[in-house]
Amino acid sequence: MAPVLDLYNGEIISYQIEKRPSLKLVTDMLKKAVRKLPTGTMLMLHSDQGWQYRHKAYQGILKDNRITQSMSRKGNCLDNAVMENFFGHLKAELLYLQDFNSVEQFVLLLKEYLHYYNHHRIRQKLNGLSPVQFRTQQMIAA
User: Fold this and answer.
1) What's the pLDDT tens digit per position in 40-94?
2) Which of 21, 45, 53, 135 is the 20 to 30 A CA-CA neighbour of 27?
3) Where are the beta strands (DSSP E) in 9-140?
């Protein structure tokens, strides 16, 4: 799974699931994220140094959409701590709790978990709201 996590509220705004890591995995994920951006938005997208994130096609999508790329330094997981934290929750709250009968079952439950994570899983630093509830509340207040 290749997700994009918004640091504003911790929401997974885009993801792509494939059976193996590939360029298509990350470019499809990035294209989904770009479709959600308001026109003219200038963002920074952080990733590790995987070959897919250094590929010309991936970097071209970033450039075409005025997104600045930021990468972790080799051997420094602290740069990616927020995403590592998300994957820790995913493993503890889904992956380690059950055995899966098939890849298809896992993917179905993963999608359900991502919906739960964004819409129902409350976070203390978001004043007891889920990421989507927090964003909605902030937009109404603005």
Assistant:
1) 788 888 888 889 999 999 999 999 999 998 886 676 666 678 888 999 999 999 9
2) 135
3) 12-16, 43-47, 67-71
Contact 45, 70 (CB under 8 A): yes
Quickly tell me which residue has 């360029």 as its tokens: 23
Q: Give Cβ neighbours of residue 72 (< 8 Å, ≥ 6 apart).
A: 46, 47, 48, 49, 79, 80
55 Cβ partners below 8 Å, 6+ apart?
Answer: 23, 26
Domain boundaries defined on the chain: 2-141
* Residue recorded with tokens 């970097």: 59
Task: Note whether 90 and 118 are within 8 A (CB).
Answer: no
* CATH node for 2-141: 3.30.420.10
**CA triplet 64, 114, 34: central angle to 5 degrees?**
10
